Every structure is written in structure tokens, then in C-alpha cells.
Automatic annotation (TrEMBL):
Complex I is composed of 45 different subunits. This a component of the hydrophobic protein fraction. Interacts with BLOC1S1. Interacts with SLC2A4. Interacts with CLOCK. Interacts with RAB5IF. This is NADH dehydrogenase [ubiquinone] 1 alpha subcomplex subunit 9, mitochondrial. InterPro entries: ComplexI_NDUFA9_subunit (IPR051207), Epimerase_deHydtase (IPR001509), NAD(P)-bd_dom_sf (IPR036291). The keyword Plastid does not apply. The keyword NAD does not apply. Keywords: Ubiquinone. Residues 62-276 form the NAD-dependent epimerase/dehydratase domain. It comes from the Eukaryota. Belongs to the complex I NDUFA9 subunit family. GO terms for molecular function: protein-containing complex binding. GO terms for cellular component: mitochondrion. Transmembrane segments: none annotated.
Length: 402
């Protein structure tokens, strides 16, 4: 018979037959294994499992705007690490039900809400320790203006989250948010960027420790950046109108997957509280270079299609086309073509020095050259043509600014 006696961090094995034999096993204490005070004695809030979608990592997150472009990526990355998700939705529930697959059975819950109904918002954040606000609009409608969504809506969610005792609040704004944006096509400048700036201030007033992200143009599945330029309605026959032919606009697009990973890392990082992060890609490009490259990827043979760019300033018919599109489809413009989108299209991305980026959160940024050809493959001309090996040259990548 043998008995084990635990003395501090040493284990002593005592055998009756051969006296006392001491075996000392030193145990290393890691920072992640150190004792921490329990914030709740509720068993449902304690971590369990070994990681993955079938586990629970102790985070209960309410994600507003989960059915949007960025929201689907954020929910997937949170769900695969064992986060319990509460996903508020409005309108048809079939739009949100597809997100049930991001977590294991019982890990993903849905709750109807309205942005102006405080009681529904309060119920959605009641049991959460993390709230993520991804609600936004690219154009105004008769029901929701930019001020209603980006300022008052963000303020309302942040205030209710603070009152409910939420530990971390993540708010997604926009790069180039400015109270006085420089006008290009619209006389007063971009209302979107102006409202995003005031939305940041409103969130800081209600939740001072909020984590704010400022993403640039995001590309990925079902985005509104690549698909915007790939849509036939954006072109004028075989030509692409751009402001100053795209030579004066600098863009730094970022992968939506990288932005989602940055949000997940910020939720787990204690030092991210109260920080503002610029979510931009690793390289800067002229808009003209990007649009030309998109064309090379989609068209393969430029000689056949005869593509060219020209200066939008000297083409009044394109502005009439945008006005006509807004008139016939005010709720969802054809090809995402509307004056607010055209205005923001020519705003140069400005990355402020001293403000942290996704790399400070440990995100390995994705190069556009590695991802865009795959994203634009469905838009290739004659995509069903079975080309022989080496029949078409690989499109040259865009030249980026050092």
C-alpha cells in the first residue's frame, strides 16, 4: 500500500515496505494558471472544456450587427473559440438563423430587437460580459439616417451596456472619420465619415473604456469593395470613370478576416481596454493601380476587351447615372452605386502615427495579392472557358507605395 502526502509544491511518496522514499516534483506556476478571484459563483459562467466550439471560454458576447458583412466573420471567430453568442436581429429571423452554425448546440442564441427600443437592447445585453457594436449603414434610408445609426444608436447601446455592467465594449467606426471631411463630389462632404466621428465621441462619453476600431475598405466574401468595382453598373460601357483617373487617391484595403481577428484578440487582451485601433492593410496603393489590377484579374486578355480609365470630372453623364440609381432604388441602390459611396471612394486613407494598428494586436496581415484573384474569380470573363496551361499570362500585381 502506498499513500501520497502533499507538502506545498512537493509530493512525497511513502512506502511501508522499504521505509520512506521521497520524490520531489516541482510544479511550474504560469501566469495563466494563477489563482484569480471569481467574478460570479454561477456555474454557468465558469470555463469548461478544452477549447473549440464545444467548449466555453467564459465569454458571453452580444454582437449587434451580426448579420452584416463584418459580423459574420466576427461571430465565426468568436464561436470557434468557445464563446457563447447572443445575436440580436431585426426584420426576418431567417437572415440571422444561418449564424446558428458558428457555435455548438446551445452556444448561439437569438433575440429580436430594434435600435430605438431600449428594453429590447437591455434584454440582449443582460447576461453578457462583452458587447460588440457593428451596426452601420452605407447609405441613408427614410427610416434610418446616419445620425440615427452611427451616433444615437451607438450612444444608446454603449449606455445600456454600461448600465448592465458589461466588462468590455467594442465599437467599430471608420478610418478617415472626420468632423469636417473635405468635399469632393458632395458639397458638404461625406455624411458617413462625419457621423462616424461623432459616433466615436458618443461612445466615449457613455463607455470611456470602450475599444474602438477604425477599419479602411474591407474586402472578402460578399464585400462592397471588390464587388463594387466588379459590377457592370459601375462602369461606363468598357471604361471606368474615376476622380482624376484615380491618380490622386491612396487606399490601404484590409482583409475582413484580419479585422475580425483583431476584434477577437482585443476582447482577450486586458491592455486593449480604452484603446483605438486603425484596421488597415499592410500596403498602400493608388486607386488607379488597384482598379487596373482588378480588371487584369477579371479580364485576362486586355487587348480583346479594350479597357481604359478616364477622369470623372469631365463626364456629367455618370453623375446623372448615380442620381437615377438613387431614384429608382432608394432602399438598396443597384450595384451599391450612390453619391455617398462615390464620395468616400476618393477619400485618401490617412494612417495616423502613434495610433496602434492590427499588428499591435498580434494579427498577421493578409496581402491583397494572395487573396484578390480568388475573390474575383466568379467575375472573370468567360469563366467557363477551359483554358490550356499557359494560354494566358498571370496578371501583374499592382505596384504599391513604399
Amino acid at each position: 500500500m502506498a499513500s501520497l502526502i502533499l507538502i506545498n509544491t512537493a509530493q512525497v511518496a511513502k512506502q511501508q515496505s522499504c521505509g520512506v522514499l521521497g520524490v520531489i516534483c516541482l510544479k511550474a506556476n504560469y501566469s495563466t494558471e494563477s489563482a484569480r478571484p471569481l467574478k460570479s459563483t454561477n456555474l454557468a459562467s465558469l470555463k469548461r472544456g478544452t477549447g473549440g466550439r464545444s467548449s466555453f471560454n467564459g465569454i458571453v458576447a452580444t454582437v449587434f450587427g451580426s448579420t452584416g458583412f463584418l459580423g459574420r466573420y466576427v461571430c465565426n471567430k468568436l464561436g470557434k473559440t468557445g464563446t457563447q453568442l447572443i445575436l440580436p436581429y431585426r426584420a426576418d429571423h431567417y437572415e440571422a438563423i444561418r449564424l446558428k452554425l458558428v457555435g455548438d448546440l446551445g452556444q448561439v442564441l437569438f433575440h429580436p430587437y430594434h435600435l430605438e427600443d431600449e428594453e429590447s437592447i437591455r434584454k440582449a445585453v443582460k447576461y453578457s460580459n462583452v458587447v460588440v457594436n457593428l451596426v452601420g449603414r452605407d447609405w441613408e434610408t427614410k427610416n434610418f439616417k446616419f445620425e440615427d445609426v452611427h451616433v444615437e444608436g451607438a450612444r444608446r447601446i454603449a449606455r445600456i451596456a454600461r448600465e448592465a455592467g458589461v466588462e468590455k465594449f467594442v465599437h467599430v467606426s471608420s478610418l478617415n472619420a472626420n468632423p469636417h471631411p473635405e468635399p469632393i463630389i458632395i458639397k458638404e462632404g461625406s455624411k458617413f465619415l462625419k457621423s462616424k466621428y461623432h459616433g466615436e465621441l458618443a461612445v466615449r462619453e457613455e463607455f470611456p473604456d470602450a475599444i474602438i476600431f477604425r477599419p479602411s475598405d474591407m474586402y472578402g466574401q460578399e464585400d462592397r469593395f471588390l464587388r463594387y468595382y466588379a459590377h457592370i453598373w459601375r462602369r461606363q460601357f468598357r471604361a471606368m470613370p474615376l476622380w482624376y483617373a484615380g491618380e490622386r487617391t491612396i487606399k490601404q484595403p484590409v482583409s475582413v478576416s484580419d479585422v475580425a481577428q483583431g476584434i477577437v484578440n482585443a476582447i482577450k487582451d486586458h491592455d486593449a481596454v480604452g484603446q483605438t485601433y486603425q484596421a488597415v492593410g499592410p500596403r498602400r496603393y493608388k486607386l488607379s493601380e488597384l482598379v487596373d489590377w482588378f480588371h487584369r484579374v477579371m479580364r485576362k486578355d486586355e487587348k480583346v476587351w479594350g479597357y481604359w480609365r478616364y477622369d470623372l470630372r469631365y463626364d456629367p453623364t455618370f453623375k446623372l447615372k448615380v442620381a437615377f440609381t438613387e431614384f429608382i432604388s432608394p432602399s438598396f441602390p443597384v450595384g451599391d452605386l450612390h453619391f455617398e459611396r462615390v464620395e468616400r471612394e476618393y477619400v485618401t486613407d490617412v494612417v495616423e502615427k502613434g495610433v496602434p494598428t492590427l499588428e499591435d494586436l498580434g494579427v498577421n496581415l493578409t496581402l491583397m495579392e494572395d487573396q484578390i484573384p480568388w475573390e474575383l474569380r466568379p467575375y472573370r470573363a468567360a469563366q467557363y472557358y477551359d483554358a490550356e496551361l499557359g494560354e494566358f499570362e498571370d496578371p501583374l500585381p499592382p505596384q504599391y507605395i513604399q
